[in-house]
Amino acid sequence: MERQKFRRGATRGQRPCTTGTSTSPPDRFTANIYARDGFTCQYCAVRFATEDLTFDHVLPRSRGGGTSWENIVTCCLACNAAKADRTPVEAHMKLCRRPRRPTFLPSIAVRMGGTVPEEWRPYWSGELQS
Question: Which fold has domain 27-123?
Answer without folding.
Answer: DNA Binding (I), subunit A (1.10.30)
